[in-house]
Structure formats: C-alpha cells, structure tokens
Amino acid sequence: MSAFPGFNSDASTHLLTVDDVTMRVVIEGEGPDVVLIPGGDQTAEAYSQQFSRLSNSFRCISYDPRGAGDTVSPPAPWTMSDYARDCAAVIDAFCSGEAVVSGLSLGGLVTQQLAIDFPDKVQLAIPMGTAAYIDGFTRDWMQAEIDLRKAGVNLPDYFLAPHYAPFAFPAKALHDSAFWAEIKPLYTRRFADREPKDLIDQWEACLEFDCREGLTTCPVPFHVISFSEDVQTAPAMCKVVADLVPNGVFHELPGLGHVSMLSHRPEVVAAKLREIILGHFG
Asked: Taking a C-beta distance cutoff of 8 angstroms, is the pair 24, 69 a contact?
C-alpha cells in the first residue's frame, strides 16, 4: 500500500475481477467520469490529492495496476496492452460508456496504449510525464535498476529517499527543509516495502513499450502534460507524443518534477487537469 495520504471518507472501494485479474478500484465524486492511472510502483493512493481537488466536479476513478497494491494478476511478463485491457475493463464496469483518461509515468504509457487499442472507450487522453518510447538516459537508468535487483542487490533503507526523491521532485523542492522532512520518511517507507520482482515486472513492461506507429493513426484527442524539471521523462520526450498523434496538444508546467502532483504542487496539476477537461467539454 502507498505511504501517501489516503482518500476522503466518502470514497468507495471495489474489487473488479475480469478473466484472471482482480483489481482494487477507488471511486469518489459525481460528474463526468475521469479515470486516473497510477505510475510505476504506485497504487490508487497516488491520486488521493487529485481526488480531493477534482471530485467536486468529476467522478474520479483510480485503481491498483498490475504489480502494485491489492491487485492480483497472472505472473509477468506483462505488456502495455495487458495494462490497457485492465483499464478498459475498469471503464466498462464503472463508467457510462467512454471516459476521460489520464495517467502519470507508467500510467501515461497505459493511457496512450488504451487510446490506441480502445479508442471508443476514451473521450480524451491526458498522459503526463510520458514517452512514446523510452530511450537515452531514462532507458539506461531503468535498465540499471532492473539489473541491480536481478543481481540480488537491495538498497538499504537509509539510501532510498536520497536515491529516488531526486528522480521525482525538482531541486528547489528537495532543498526546502520542511518539504524534505515530509518526503524523506514517505519515500523510505514506499520503496522499503516494494517487492523487487514487482519493480522488475512493471519496469520491463515500460522498456518494451513503443507506440510511435500506433499514435500516428489514433483518433482520440490528446493533451500531453510535461514538467519542466522532470528528470525521468523530460519535456522533449512528452512532446514527441503530442507531435505524433493527429489531434495532440502539448503542455509544459514550469518548476514541477515527475511526481510533483504528490505533496509538492498537487494544486497546480489538478488545476491544469480541470482546465483541460472543462475546455474539452466546452
């Protein structure tokens, strides 16, 4: 389970079983359906701070993806198409037809694959901190993390927050002593509880992903959100997605890192999501 703050008391939790996958699904709010897909190593709780800011206007839905939280699925390897089918099942079970779909990181990859494979289920796609294909520094870093765990190396608890937080938040935030005091124990608990195999399985699915060809004919409108201080998926990687899809718009949020929607600047990300969604509904 995520160490980040949980949902409001009026959020409802459901178990959805489709074929051989059982997913924990969390729903809060009333209005147009907005499905929020967690990133790698994240559970539905990753969106709790977005739910608290958006559920007064939208019916917010999130879930634990394969390899995280309470979701149970067949053994890996998994493909991004497997993740897309899981999300499509959530939409079929809990939404009225199509939905607005947004995801961060791994969730951004799932958002793209879902729009390609199931365009009739996606009214609007908003991938965040994403890429059409992972290469360069990000690929080398992710492969190194995978290889480290396959070699049986486990990072000590005291190293977890100093290692992972710089990949999540901008330097200015990390050097704010109050923010670091908040984030350090959260990131320590989050990655101390992470099973090495779950990280390997999720991250290998990301490295196998390449949707560049599929994007070129995808009919779904895209708004791609990037973060100017994102170390994992730099704005240039996100812009490739917006440029490839026929109906794509690119956004860059200044001063934010890959996971700034958690604890750092959740209100900025929520405001951008609200602006894009309301603008789409017209």
From this structure: yes
